[in-house]
Amino acid sequence: MKNRFWLIGLVALAWSCGSPEQQTELATKSPAKPYPTFSADSAYAFVQKQVDFGPRVPETEAHSATKNWLLSKFKGYGFTVQTQDFEAKTYDGLTWGLSNIIASYNPQATKRILLAAHWDTRRIADKDTERINEPINGANDGGSGVGVLLEIARVIGSQELKPNVGIDIILFDGEDDGEPEHATTRDNSQIWWCLGSQHWSKNKHIPNYSAYYGILVDLVGAKGARFYREGYSRQYASGIIKKVWDNAHQIGQGDFFIYKDADSILDDHVFVNEFAKIPMIDIIEFSPDFGFSQYHHKHSDNMDIIDRRTLKAVGETVLFTIYQE
Questions:
Q1: Above 90 in pLDDT, residue 25?
Q2: What keywords is this UniProt entry annotated with (predicted)?
Q3: Is 150 exposed, middle or buried (0-12, 13-18, 19+ CB in 10 A)?
């Protein structure tokens, strides 16, 4: 697999997208450092594999099988791997055994970048009109983010060209629970989703762990997806969201990364920012005009909506970003 060198065509690509001010800024940047190729086919296969296991709802066989597969994949790519096992209460009184999966490259490096997604799926299809109480496949909501990060891990592990920083990939568990969309009564004593990030942010796998910044990827594989600057990302990490969006435009993925603000989404990155004190952004498909897409928390969140082009746009942007450090 050949490495990409975005040197000669860089200015032309940058000039084709964005406002005049953004074009001027991008055109004056130093030539980009080389970075490896992100394989959309490989990322797609990783999403398919997860869906083949079935819905990855905690306390199920599919969840356990997926966990073992994920651990073996990261280990095979030469990452140092561990799990953070813990128990958490659910909104309906269950006690779930959950596992955050943590994979690290170059663990001795002091400058670190944190990449994250969630690997569980929702146990109900509460936005659907049928089979509401059955779990969803979560090809995009869960599967796509994991697929992108697995491909990044594969690339780092298999290529001679390595990033100059340490990389920590955390796959949070228990993100996609929470009360049904139209629940008549709600327990507001705590937040019942993002269980894995809430736990990790208050109980880091390494005492005093920190990272230069973090990138969360969630809902990053659907056909026609566009990514806007999410509200909490702007609040906590405006410099990082600018860096990533500029990078996307610099490598020709500006059609996917829109210079437009969206509402705030209470996702895993909020707890990483608030409690772990690591500036983290969320790359998430959420439109300022339409909100979540029509498949969100429905059975239509399956492989039919997954698009290699979207996976590549996000994966290539994140890969480019970490190789520029």
A1: no
A2: Acyltransferase, Transferase
A3: buried
Spatial contact of 187 and 91, defined as CB atoms under 8 Å apart: yes
* More confident: 38 or 186: 38
- Nearest Cα to 105, choosing from 74, 83, 84? 74
* Rounded CA separation 160/237 (Å): 31
Report the C-alpha gap between 259 and 226 in whole angstroms: 10
Measure CA 83 to chain center.
18
Q: Strand 112-118 to strand 80-89: parallel, antiparallel, or no bridges (unpaired)?
A: unpaired
Return mean pLDDT, the chain: 92
Judge whether 36 and 4 are in contact, CB under 8 Å: yes
Question: Cα–Cα distance between 316 and 39 in angstroms, integer?
Answer: 9
Q: What is the mean pLDDT of residues 96-112?
A: 97
Instruction: Report how far residue 131's alpha carbon sits from residue 198's, in angstroms, rounded to the nearest whole number.
Output: 30
Distance CA 265, CA 261 (A): 12
Whether pTM exceeds 0.70: yes
Instruction: List C-alpha distances in Å: 285 to 136, 211, 297.
Output: 18, 25, 13
Q: What is the DSSP letter of 271?
A: H
Q: Distance between CA atoms of 120 and 114, rounded to whole angstroms? A: 19
Q: Which of 14, 4, 5 is nearest to 248 (CA)?
A: 14
> Domains of the chain by range and CATH?
40-179+189-324 (3.40.630.10)
196 contacts 145 by C-beta, under 8 angstroms: no
Mean pLDDT on 128-148:
98
CB atoms within 10 A of CB 309: 14
3 state SS of 279? coil
Structure confidence at residue 285 (pLDDT): 98
pLDDT, tens digit, 9 for 90 and up, residues 304-314? 999 999 999 99
| The pLDDT value given to residue 200 | 98
Least confident of 19-28, 43-52, 208-217, 232-241: 19-28
Residue type, 271: F
Residue with tokens 């269980």: 195
